[in-house]
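RECORD CONTENTS
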Amino acid sequence: MESNFLVVFPFPLMLLTIITIFFSLTSSQPIDSKSDQDALLAFKRSIKNGALSNNWLTNTSICDWTGVSCGSKHGRVTSLNLTGFGLEGNLTPHLGNLTFLQSLDVSSNSLTGVLPAELSKLQRLQEINAASNNLSGEIPRSIFTNMSVLVEIDVSNNKLSGGLPGDMCSNTPKLRRLILRENQIYGNIPMSIDKCREMEELSLSTNRFNGNIPIGIGNLSMLTLLSMYENHLQGNIPSSIFNISSLESMYLFSNRLSGNIPSKLNNLPNLRELYLYENNLEGTFNNFEPSTLSIF
């Protein structure tokens, strides 16, 4: 004969159990959002002139803070756009804790210090724009080698130095815009740059690059802008570059380039500007239409 047992839990114990289960299922979102808030507040503290003091207040949601955008589903910070805010201070490493961040734009400010290596922890980050600041030091190697979805890097018009890693495009296959002009970056242009097959704009001008232009640049079939003027580049211009049919602008002036240039530009139907002056190049161009192409 079987017996049926009915177990009765006291109501207070049952209520406590339900509350515990509820918070265990829902607490992850506030904790994650809190980590975003902590990262942004750390950045706010690193800004010396108080430019964010009246905008980023803890009694309001971080998604309502000026320059901050959040995802509609998870409420996490996905974009930080602080261009032209007059910020003075440093880029805190705590920005590397904004794990859902896709776009970082702190351009046109007065930021100093280095570009934090912790940014390379952000595996969703697609755009880094820190142009027109006073940043110094090297660009962290990990930014070029550990960010597989990165599309744009613009750190032009700073005081950055050091060289570029030899394997810089090995794990950034989606990189389309690499804008490093007006810095103090030196050394050779890495041969691995041809692994950035989706590159559309490559601007390395007004730096201290030396050595030859990598032949592999001619394999960047989507390239529209090639800008390397005012460096110390030498040797020939790879002939393969004159076969990039998508190319619209090429600026290689004020280097130490030598050798012959092709007399015809038949394979560059979209080319509008070609600046090669102040080099040691020989040859002349034929069969081009002056109204559509500027050559200097």
